User: What shape does this take?
Amino acid sequence: MAIPAQARSRRFRLLWILPAAVLLLAVAVLLARFVRELPAVQDFMTQYPGESELPPESPVGLPAWLGWQHFLSAFFILLIIRTGWQIRTEKRPAAFYTRNNRGLIRTKGAPHRISLTLWLHLSLDALWVLNGVVFIVLVFVSGHWVRLVPLHWDIFPNAVSVGIQYLSLQWPTENGWVNYNALQLLTYFITVFIAAPLAILTGIRMSPAWPTGRTRLSAAYPVELARRIHFPVMLWFVLFTVTHVTLVFATGALRNLNHMYAGRDDASWWGFGIFAASLLVMIAAWFLARPLFLRPIAALSGTVSR
Amino acid sequence: MKIIVLVKQVPDTWGERTLDSASGRIDRSNGDQVFDESGERALEVALRHREASGADIVAMTMGPPSAAEVLRKALAMGADSAVHVLDDALAGSDLSSTSAALAAAIKLEGFDLVIAGNESTDGRGGMIPAMVAEHLGVAHATFLNSTVIDATTVRGERGTESGTLEVHAGLPAVISVTERSPEARFPGFKGIMGAKKKPLVQRSLAELAPLDGGAKSVVLSVVRRPARSAGLIVTDDGTAAKQLADFLVTNRLA
Assistant: This one.
């Protein structure tokens, strides 16, 4: 069978990209190992061991509500990314949805007719944002925010130090119950306080909720710009999730899962059990999120048509 | 009341549809095969009547084995039973033999009302309902934009090229409905599960005797529609009016 020229060149590119990536990684690891042994770097790493000191009286441990928040966030983002991808790729939606403008949400203008996929994406967005708002409120009210926001400039040298430790394959000791390492903290901060708001702001621009009638506002913030940002933000979430899950499992899985889901700091199987159950829920939702089951739910607040 | 709904499996209008050049028949091998939309609306009319006054709804089709999928969907949407007129000798049937076979199957089943779509998206003949009525010897009211059914009559607005007519007929009768009829419902999960238990019977030509069956007309040749040629763009350099007039005259449009 003839392979199209474009696919052939892509396959050919893979032929050298893959070994090049492996080579680059090997070089980076060797370099980090070499750099690490330099006396100056040794001094630097003693001074900046990898975590920024928390203010006194910072809360210790992770509360139980975080487990819920974390599960819901993961649950929604999984389906949001999936439906977002479907919206980009689907050529012929299985059904369309028009809000009936009678229930909880009422607008002056007539509701737009949108694909069932977009309806699901927007509904999940709303739930994800609601979950996020609850999280932000709880994290600030409980004082846990100090663990999530960089408070000193030394977070950056500490992050560099952690980076060297990871790259040299001598990973920093996990201390997530008390304090995240600097790189971890920065990543969480970017995800919660930069990526998530960016996803929301760019999503609103593309959604039917945007007031397209406000021409000057729309011109100042073109939809193309929103689209160009929305997609890389999705890639950030994917990259973050892959790295996050990998590190959770590679740095004392049982203890980490207990931190995340069971609100306890030991190596029992509780956290793992809850995580496993949450995984089942996500898999079930993934397979049930099809027109046959979505139509009756969508029909509660609008008209589903072909 | 017993209502028979005529349904049909057609190639999806979404993709490119082709004729098999050897047999002159529809090429069913590529693209999706779906429930013809006007047939879905016919079923919707029957289902709404059943919800209002009760009825026994039989979905009926004639077609290759794959057409059973459409009957399954009709059962999932709410039809009570289904009849599949299936016989190799019927392959390639034209309007005349199709209507004869369907009428024979309808007679076998017994009916008060037959509802069909006005025309399928593949053949677009629009003649089957009237021909079936002729075979059955009952009145027909075709191309109905709206339908009202009661115990003894069926009435509605019939769309024609020059306007609309209010028509009615005593039962038993045959009607066909247009795309102005209400949009068909989606089959629900319960419907799909329940459809598996509903009866779907097959009728062969032998059961429909004394039909001789088979196509009465033969397709001699199939020609692909020529590609559309580019239109003529007239730019106004002072002679546009004359160019337009010439165009209309040479194309006998004036």
